[in-house]
């Protein structure tokens, strides 16, 4: 649920901080008082686009902060983890949005900076806002299949997941087949090119790391004379008559003779000098061996130069490293094999595609049957909800037809179009009045009827979509009398499953709320401010009296308002 909402410098709101309760919350006030700004703030929190126009005149930035108290296991926690926001399911979710006077926006969730698409991804699990024009989404028939699938997810979902796996493989096969057929136009030219490249690379017999080994060998061969000269001189200086080791050996012999006279002092020194002698002697032997293995081979040096030229030429053509050249070789070998066996591959793929199409057709049929069963249940539920909203004689039907296409599965002289949602076209049909035929929902003209139909649908889907906050922005416009009372009771009943907010001008709706907030516009020092008050029972009666009678609150309207509250309080426990 939405626990707190803080707004600073948003349009005419300078500073507002609200604490909300579970259940049904209403916001009322005169037209232009700023009620819609509360909805704008929630929309921004849910990832809606902001602009500099929303920043209060004279302020540097607008700030909105919302605190949500969500149950463990709700899908929003997985969404947070997916976008990299670390949050314990025992914590609150704090969303902060800032918009500067220059139009720049920043978003944070529990202190983590996120971009707008991430915020929108999280917001979709938190807030669902429906305005008086929001029912236009009901008029888009392409959305109806999603509504139906959501309602019947228990039975439709497993079939749909299998269908989509099959559909993915089906589309991949079609794409590959199209590529193979298209490649035939340039196939002969490319085959000649690939054969030449394959032969050129294969003839080189490249090995990974070969160029590095050759570079090392080349360096030694090119500097063989210098290496030999200096190694030989170093050896001669170390080993030979009157050389370093000869002199050191004589010094060691002299030290050995006197060590017996003072072993405590000279013994360690003798050992140290002895170790140094043998280490230097070992170094001399290694220098001698190194000198003797130095190779003078101009022919081998020329071979390396030629090999380097071949490798460099191949690198210039096919890749910066030998590994890249060999990778390219593997890639074009596969392409050449495909080209040379293209006809056989096309035949095999066509057969596999026919089999996959038949499998997809079976799953599409199963998906369609699952939808037809769910459609019966959904239509019955909607008619039941509409009866509660005083549309007792309304008939509702979910019509399901196959979508035709120039491409697809041919059956009965027609071709059926596959999509990721199957081959069904789903459309909501309604007859509001007895004697009238069923017509598309998009042809219903009455705003009051659409508002009630939308409320009926949301009353059903709120139980399954797990969105905790449902906001209605004046959806009761154009409704009055018994229908208004029915809408009020329906919203109150809906608040058992989620937290409901409603901006309304109808006292019948306002009196059924569990919490009532009055929004008022005031002018001080030539500046406009919006204030929001959390009303107690006395203040609620006064606000209802204003809604009933206008600006002037009379004893009659006040008495009527108190009576409405009393009746509503008695009725709410029974809803």
Structural overview:
The protein is of the alpha+beta class. It contains 19 helices and 17 strands. Helix 10 packs antiparallel against helix 11 and helix 14 crosses helix 15. The longest helix is centred in the middle third of the chain and has 47 residues.
List keywords for this structure.
575 residues; alpha+beta; Rossmann fold; six-stranded antiparallel sheet; six-stranded mixed sheet; elongated
CATH topology of the domain at 1-126 and 467-536: Rossmann fold
Helix content: 40-55%
Largest sheet: 6 strands, antiparallel
Which class do the helix and strand fractions yield?
A: alpha+beta
Strand content: 15-25%
Q: How is the topology of this model organized?
A:
Blueprint (H helix, E strand, L loop, with lengths): L1 E9 L2 E7 L4 E5 L6 H11 L15 E8 L6 H8 L10 E8 L4 E5 L2 E3 L1 H8 L3 E5 L4 H4 L4 H8 L1 H31 L3 H18 L5 H13 L1 H15 L5 H16 L3 H31 L4 H21 L3 H19 L1 H47 L6 E8 L1 E8 L2 E3 L7 E8 L7 E2 L6 H15 L7 E5 L7 H14 L4 E5 L3 H4 L4 E10 L2 E8 L2 H13 L5 H17 L4
Parallel strand pairs: 3-15, 3-16, 8-14, 14-15
Antiparallel strand pairs: 1-2, 1-4, 4-5, 5-6, 6-7, 9-12, 10-11, 12-13, 16-17
Helix pairs in contact: 5-6, 6-14, 7-13, 8-12, 9-11, 10-11, 12-13, 14-15, 15-16, 18-19
How do you describe this structure in short?
The protein is α+β, with helices and mostly antiparallel strands. It is built from 19 helices and 17 strands. Strand 10 and strand 11 (414-416) form a beta hairpin.
